[in-house]
Each structure stands twice: as C-alpha cells, then as structure tokens.
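User: I'm new to structure prediction. If I give you an amino acid sequence, what do you actually give back? Let's try with this one:
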Amino acid sequence: MSVCRVLLCVSLMLLYSVSSQADTLWLKNGDRLSGQIELLEGGKLHILTELAGRVTVSVQNISTFETDNAQFIKVEGQADRALSVEASEVAGEVLLRNGAPEAVPLSISSIEQMLRPRPIVEDWVWEGKATAALDIKNNGTEQRDLDLAVSARARHGDWRHVLGGEFERDYRDDVKSRHVWNADYDLSWFFDEHWFWQTSLGYQRDHLSDIARTKQIGMGPGYEWWNNALGRFETSARIDYVELENRDGSTDHFNALGLEWDFRRYLFGKRFELFHGAETLVPDDPAVDYVVDAELGVRYLLNSWASLSLLSEWDYLKSSEQEDTNETRYRFGLGVTW
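Assistant: Good question. You get back a string of structure tokens that encode the predicted 3D arrangement of the chain. For your 338 residues, that looks like this:
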C-alpha cells in the first residue's frame, strides 16, 4: 500500500472518529444538526456547530437528539446523571443510558436543565475582552476612557493557571487622569474536588499616582462552590506580602489579609452572562483600614465569540488618618472570547 493511500485511510479514520463523537439533533421539520450540545435550559437547547457556531433551538421544535457524553439532567427538581443519551423513535423523546440494562425514555419537554459535567482534565481555555468608552459629557467634563483586558485560564488535572493583564488610560478635558497597567498570575492546586491552594503574583504600574509600582505575592486556601456550563463561583483567602514603590523613590512594605471571590452565571439560555468579582485587602498598616476593588457587570453574547458588556468598577480605600478614596467607573464595550 502506498504512503498516499495510508495517509488517506488514516485521515478517513480520524474524520470518522471525530464525526462519530459529534452530538446529533433531529428537528421536527426533518433538519438535522451535528456538533456539541452545551446546555438545555429554559426550554432552549444550545448546540455548538462547526459551520454555524452556537445555535439555539426551542425544545418544542426538537424531535430527538443523542450524545455519547455524560450529562447532568434535572427533571421536576430531581437531578440524575446519564452516561449517554440516545435518540428515540418517538418524537419529543430521548432514551437515557444510566447503567441499567434498559434505556429509560424521557420526554424532552420535561427536562428543566441538562448540561455536561466539568471534566477533570481540560485543555487551554482562553478568554479575552476589549472595552472602549465613547466620549461623554458629565457635569461639563469631557471624558475619554480606554480599558483593554485579556485573560487566559488553563486546567490540567489538579492544577489550574490563570494569567491576566489590563491597561487603563482615561482623560478628563484632554488632561490625562489615569494611566495604569497591571498583570497577575494565579497558580491553584486542587487537593479536593472543591478545595484548592492558591499562590498569586501581581504587579501594577501607575504613571500618575503617588504609588508608582505595586508588587504583591500571596498564598492561601480557596473553595470552588460550582463550575459548570452555567458558570462558576469561588472564594479564596490569602496572606499577602505587598511592596509599594512611591514616586519619590521611597518604598513601603506590609502584610495583608486578602479576600477574593469570582462569580459568573449565564442567564436566559446563555444569551446573557452576569459577572461579579471583588478583592478586599486588610493590611497591617494603621493608616489604612481596608481596600476594596470590585466589578459588577452583564455581558450580552452576540454569538459564540463576540459580546457586548456593561461594566461597573468600584475602588474604595478606607483610611483612618486621611480622606477616604471612593471612585466608581462605568464602561460599555465589545468583548471577544477564544
């Protein structure tokens, strides 16, 4: 057999194996979709196809579907796990394989929620967003704000890596009022299904404020409450060491207790995403009681890779010796994921 024939056979085998692993959705009008079923919730099924991207189909238009992937299925308040879901000859029905000798028939309309369990081993998952605000008038002040952020997450076995960076530059009446960029890296080791130990590194460069550079390192435990196709929520606590380099050349060092949480939740069948994250530092500095850096926003998913977002950011510093710092910013922008 020639090399070309061998390569052709291998390619056909790979193509067949990939296509055989694809989920299949049959519609009542006779159409069929192949791809990866992501979620069924709120009477909508979301399937990620190779040609059309993410497609949303109403349950009432589905005849049946099948998938070889394990699924968590919630019906009338009860959740169960199916090893696979097979197509049924009865319209509006599927067959569940959960280890029993016979498949269990289930009406598709009775499924309140169906999603794939989070795999233990994951490849790189990249997330990125870019946000730019339009010029607006606020109390006679002309504002021009730019915020660019990118983040990457990777999970493999018991380890998770999170790398992020952000650049901010704001103008008020053509005078630069903010010019900051920062980068951070978190390494987490999951010693339990939910518990993990986190080590964090952070660096911030500020071109305008009295604190020119901030370096931060910390470690401590965290707990991942849930992480699935609907989003995630986790909390963590750390003991941080912070070094501040002032613009006059002096440096300050202190330890701090860091509290952090991250919440993401898809709504209305993965059309909207609500996200909220915050970090609170309680330093051993008598001049500062605590520092809060929080964000709250909603993201509208245009398709499988583009989104519009409305974001509110809040920076608060409670001081015992000087005036408190309280700053809130609102941003509207375009985001991409890959």
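You can read the tokens as a compact description of the fold. Here is one thing that stands out. Residues 118 and 228 are 5 Å apart (CA to CA).
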